[in-house]
Q: What sequence folds into this?
């Protein structure tokens, strides 16, 4: 769906209030008019003087720069398209501060952008907001091998930082499929969860401090390198998961664990979701402190990866469900013994139907690719409707079955090229009760969307789940926040937004 397809409801102080859980079909977007101004060539001139270097400004105001702007205006899913005419690529926190202050003084709207791998349209302008990219702010500021505390610029790429830490026997406490492109600032701003949250916990716990430029241009330096600091409100938490709505993160300090010396990966085939739950319960019992990931993939997700990536599956025969288990520890012999005992137990008790254990690093990577490769493979046909949700574990997969049933009954799903939906796929971080319900389609289609929304959100609300486990809300879930947050919580969020961003310049029109 292009942004032009969305019906826009502009909320002014006098408009009647819509109840997002009742009155809003998904394609209506509630936008509060912020009163921000249009960009002129005088503004662009200011930024050019400020940032000096040619490569720091992509100027589509005074000339046609559409080819250069394309990558910034379009999201990873190719679902959202913005119309920015100006991308600014500052090199320092001071430059970010001057940009933001000027924008605030001149009522110019800004969208912070990191690696642009977000999956909810948060990093894409809705109209022609200025994009402030962190791509050139990519220095590691310090790393203390004794405490494991890293301080780095927000624009550092996750994988680059992890490789830096690997050379110092440490690991970044977050790992995800987009690690080759996403930035630390984007990770913190989306409170990304990823593949090893089960082991290392959420960024709300690991981030020790942030450096942020708030909408009036002030630099808030809270780059604490302390694990303990009980001195009043823990305000850095406001920026973790804020999706760029109250400031631009320019630096992050984060606690990084020791890199495990022994990593094992097993890939299992199972006959039901019930058995996957048993396998998880037993994994916690047998592997406890060395369990670092427990991922679920349904049969169709693996069939589609096989079709698109054209590679040989790890197991002979087909299974309705697959799980990937990773252990990370400090003693290979000890971990091998534990994992072997676990595998013996689940096989002999008929919990799993088949399984394979990686024998070396190449096989570890290869087994992981069957899980990490899913998002990219599903993108192969044209588009994907993505729902990243938290559901109590016993009912986690039921949502996939119910959605498949619904789309089948509506006659929208099948191999016939004229039908929009390729399949309904479920996978995710089972160890965190986090399901990725994905609907790969041949094209984004209004009829499909009407079947999916608000159905999916109502289903989740009935089970007290969350409509966003880790990807955030961005613009995609703006109309649906009411399914997971009370009116009071929404009002408190709006109060915070108004307090720090009274002019509404910072990532406007998104979820808040
Ligand atoms: C293949 C694939 C796999 C993924 N797997 C996972 C996963 O397992 N878990 C998970 O949580 N996510 C996952 N994601 C989603 C995405 O990668 C994460 O949300 C990531 O953290 C976004 O980082 P980014 O730098 O690309 O941010 P962007 O996409 O550039 O931005 C995301 C949001 O953060 C804001 N933002 C960016 N930088 C800053 C900053 N410096 N200051 C303030 N606001 C900022 C933007 O305005 C936007 O609202 C996946 C994405 C892909 C494509």
A:
């Amino acid at each position: 769906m292009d942004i032009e397809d969305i019906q826009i409801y502009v909320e002014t102080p006098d408009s009647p209030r819509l109840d997002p859980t009742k009155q809003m079909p998904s394609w209506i977007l509630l936008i509060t008019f912020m009163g921000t101004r249009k960009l002129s060539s005088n503004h662009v001139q200011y930024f050019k003087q400020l940032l000096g270097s040619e490569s720091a400004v992509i100027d589509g105001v005074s000339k046609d720069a559409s080819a250069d702007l394309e990558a910034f205006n379009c999201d990873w899913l190719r679902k959202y398209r913005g119309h920015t005419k100006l991308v600014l690529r500052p090199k320092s926190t001071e430059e970010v501060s001057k940009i933001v202050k000027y924008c605030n003084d001149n009522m110019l709207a800004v969208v912070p952008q990191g690696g642009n791998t977000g999956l909810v349209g948060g990093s894409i302008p809705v109209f022609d907001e200025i994009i402030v990219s962190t791509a050139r702010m990519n220095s590691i500021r310090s790393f203390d091998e004794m405490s494991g505390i890293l301080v780095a610029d927000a624009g550092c790429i996750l994988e680059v930082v992890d490789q830096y830490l690997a050379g110092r026997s440490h690991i970044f406490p977050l790992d995800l499929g987009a690690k080759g492109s996403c930035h630390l600032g984007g990770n913190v701003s989306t409170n990304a969860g990823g593949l090893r949250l089960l082991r290392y916990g959420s960024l709300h716990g690991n981030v020790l401090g942030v450096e942020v430029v708030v909408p009036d241009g002030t630099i808030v330096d809270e780059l604490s390198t302390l694990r303990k600091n009980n001195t009043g409100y823990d305000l850095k938490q406001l920026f973790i998961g804020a999706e760029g709505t109250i400031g631009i993160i320019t630096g992050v300090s984060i606690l990084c664990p020791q890199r495990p010396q022994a990593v094992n990966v097993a890939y299992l085939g199972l006959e039901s979701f019930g058995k996957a739950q048993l396998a998880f319960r037993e994994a916690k019992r047998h592997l406890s402190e060395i369990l670092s990931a427990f991922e679920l993939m349904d049969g169709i997700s693996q069939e589609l990866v096989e079709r698109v990536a054209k590679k040989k599956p790890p197991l002979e025969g087909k299974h309705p469900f697959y799980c990937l288990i990773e252990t990370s520890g400090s003693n290979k012999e000890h971990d091998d013994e534990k994992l072997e005992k676990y595998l013996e137990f689940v096989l002999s008790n008929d919990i799993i139907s088949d399984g394979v254990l990686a024998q070396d690093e190449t096989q570890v990577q290869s087994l992981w690719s069957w899980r990490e490769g899913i998002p990219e493979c599903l993108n192969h046909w044209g588009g994907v409707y993505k729902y990243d949700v938290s559901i109590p574990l016993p009912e986690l997969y039921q949502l996939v079955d119910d959605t498949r049933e619904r789309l089948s009954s509506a006659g929208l799903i099948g191999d016939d090229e004229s039908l929009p939906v390729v399949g309904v796929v479920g996978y995710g971080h089972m160890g965190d009760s986090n399901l990725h319900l994905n609907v790969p389609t041949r094209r984004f289609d209004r009829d499909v969307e009407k079947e999916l929304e608000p159905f999916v959100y109502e289903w989740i609300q009935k089970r007290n789940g969350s409509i966003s486990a880790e990807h955030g809300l961005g613009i995609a879930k703006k109309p649906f926040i009411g399914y997971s947050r009370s009116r009071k919580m929404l009002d408190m969020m709006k109060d915070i937004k108004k307090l720090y961003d009274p002019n509404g310049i910072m990532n406007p029109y998104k979820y808040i």
User: Anything to note?
Assistant: The CA atoms of residues 183 and 291 lie 26 Å apart. The pocket of flavin-adenine dinucleotide is lined by residues 76, 111-119, 122-123, 134, 154, 176-178, 182-183, 185-187, 189-190, 192-194, 243-244, 248-249, 375-376, 470-471, 474, 507 (CB under 6 Å). Residues 1-9, 12-28 have pLDDT under 50 and may be disordered.
